[in-house]
Amino acid sequence: MTARELFASIVKAEGREGTVTLPADFNDISVLMGLSMEDSVTRELAFIEENKKVVPQYTSLAKKLGGMFYGFYYNPCVYAQNDINDKLLTVLKEFREQEKIKQDLFARINVLQDRLDELS
Amino acid sequence: MRIFQVLTTLSRGDAVSNDTLAIQKLLKANGIKSVIYAEHLDPKFISKTIKPYHVLPKIRKGDLMLYHLSTGTVLNEKIKDLPCKKIVIYHNMTPPDFFVPYSGAAAKLCSQGIDEAISLKDTFDAGINDSSFNMHQLEGYGYKCPMKVCPILVPFEDYAKEPDAALLEAMGGPAATNDHVVKNILFVGRIVPNKKPEDIMTMLYAYRQMYKEPVRLILAGSTQGMEKYTARLRLYAKKLGLDDIVFTGHITFPQILAYYRSADAFVQLSEHEGFCVPLLEAMYFRIPIIAFDSCAMPETLGGTGILLDKKDPALMGQALHEALFNEELRQKVLAEQDERLKYFSYENVSKMFMDQLGQFREALK
What we know:
The structure holds 2 protein chains of 2 kinds.
Chain A: H1 3-14, H2 31-34, H3 37-51, H4 61-70, H5 76-119
Helix pairs in contact in A: 3-5
Chain B: E1 3-10, H1 15-29, E2 34-41, E3 50-52, E4 64-69, H2 75-78, E5 85-90, H3 104-119, E6 126-129, H4 132-140, E7 147-149, H5 165-170, E8 183-188, H6 197-210, E9 215-220, H7 227-239, E10 246-247, H8 253-261, E11 265-268, H9 277-284, E12 289-292, H10 297-301, E13 306-308, H11 313-325, H12 327-341, H13 346-363
Parallel strand pairs in B: 1-2, 1-4, 2-3, 4-5, 5-6, 6-7, 8-9, 8-11, 9-10, 11-12, 12-13
Helix pairs in contact in B: 6-11, 11-12
């Protein structure tokens, strides 16, 4: 007898299927109740606040010239700012997309509520 | 013939990355030099044989590319017109529906990935798939090239390394030599909707309604990018009165070793997997597995483990109790899993991969 066959025989003998009722259904838990969009945005904005301190630019003429010729020095402030801007754009894009999904769902809820009202 | 492996992201702890690195090591052991090119690359990996994709050299007709297809990426378009021979190594893509409530970006990437996989149906000269499940999916997309199945190559010797000692002690020590008062139930994988950790929570709730012996649940995996989903999971756990679930977040390799070594049961109730490497890991660490009959998991298990065909809470709770405390069942499960693991041994899979690669190289000359 395989392990699965043994387990199946135990299940059949004890007949416990369907005997546990859950106090909550995962699908009934609103994503919005779990976490508001604001939390994600807040976290990202906190990251941006923390990183927006200005990185001093290179003031040495020699380093600036070296960078121009050999490309190994760069303005770290520009790259840091670009990185922050990219993160902000990603967050805002996601926010807009999620807002649209939210609006669509609210519209659907309204339609279903109307139907429920008609039936009751 | 130059051989390249190409993939989207090479990073630590990722199954596709690990497979890519293992294949490179295998090729090298067989006297075949190869280079990995990745679109996104952890700088720590950069070497003479691992490089960013943008430095890919001019590709010649006689070159061979092993392309790891696993997600939406600009590379899916870029490789189409390359003149070399191309073998797809398909790792499957998660259907976007799982992610729609939580991340529009993730859903879009999955959707894009599937569209791109379909658009690549005439691009490849051959395919190597992690599982028959994956192969059938590509066939469904219209792939007509010759394809074979070869499991993911797992260098099991890495799992013999030292675990995080402090964590292992905190978890009650190795399960093999300690009779834990509180049994450790382990899930390993990213905390993402297709892996259904909420169903494991349901299992835990049902178990606690039915039985007295204490257990705790460890969800070992990163929650990055899934904050909304994780918040929903936490709220669900609260509503079920489960206030002691461990969400580990991203963990180090020694930490994952500690969790595996201290686990008394391994649960995987996913509804989408292309292969599921953690099942092999659980087999290696001799942990009885409870899994859901879905996608590639039955194939990977090969008749072993306790496979549930439905997610009835009481059935799941009972499965957990039997796996933990029914010694006869437990030993049967472990013995069967030990036997199954031999199929996935490094030696066996290496031979399979090299044979298949050799056949394709010969046919593509």
